[in-house]
Amino acid sequence: MVVSEGAVDLRQLEYFLAVAEELSFTRAAHRLHVVQSGVSASIKSLERDVGAPLLDRSSKHVRLTDAGARLVPQAYAVLEAAQRARDAVAADDGELSGTVRLGTMTSVRLLDVPAILGSTTAATRACSCS
Amino acid sequence: MVVSEGAVDLRQLEYFLAVAEELSFTRAAHRLHVVQSGVSASIKSLERDVGAPLLDRSSKHVRLTDAGARLVPQAYAVLEAAQRARDAVAADDGELSGTVRLGTMTSVRLLDVPAILGSTTAATRACSCS
DNA sequence: ATCTCTTACGACGAACGTAACGATG
DNA sequence: CATCGTTACGTTCGTCGTAAGAGAT
């Protein structure tokens, strides 16, 4: 009777990967252009949704838990697939697949890489921040 | 300079696939246990997010547009990956991968298939509705 | 006339930013 | 004491359900 819902959001995964990479809520929040409290709340809601703690916030070091380490590659895959889905609807000609494949492993760094590449669709996601 | 956001939600994709399969907002809404207006609004927001119409609602027939047809397999891949991500954190023993692989191609029918299988994690998602 | 999708409306919930708090080195 | 993460609070935006409207067979 317990409806676990599994309401995992793409934003939650993006925030989680940012923290997992930086191993810091502060740096992750800075990279995501949001405040720490937002990242904290989002990670907490993600942990609630999946039903397991993902990060070990003991002392000053943020470490991945066992479940968190297992989630990382899968979270990458989800964001990768989501990016592919977004590009699919914009693919009027076949040459877009190259762009997608280029962004796959760097999907969490979408804020700077696409700007450098200057690709048409990705360029629209570039943001000019210090 | 146009920030396209790309705020695609997993729920939107699930709704979209339901409509794409049923080719009907009404039947899709019934299967998803929500009202038609909710599905309509969700699809519309998805179309706004991806920046292209996905469904052709002319007359009584709902048909997939070109972009919509391209999105379907990618949307499946995203939901598949999301399901894999949820299972990853719950994988205490290695035997779960079989359950995941079983659910991949039927991820949009999560409401009934898992109930039949009676798997531990999936069973929590089963809902008892008429 | 009936079925299907859309739009309007009020209400609930989620996420954000600001700000204050607790803990660790 | 300085930094990092959490909690509290008010605002804003999205989604839901109910209900009414437009189009087509």
UniProtKB/TrEMBL annotation, chains A, B:
Signal peptide: none annotated. It holds the Pfam family HTH_1. The keyword Transferase does not apply. Keywords: DNA-binding, Transcription, Transcription regulation. This is HTH lysR-type domain-containing protein. It comes from Barrientosiimonas endolithica. Belongs to the LysR transcriptional regulatory family. Residues 8-65 form the HTH lysR-type domain. The keyword DNA-binding applies. The lineage of its organism: Bacteria, Bacillati, Actinomycetota, Actinomycetes, Micrococcales.
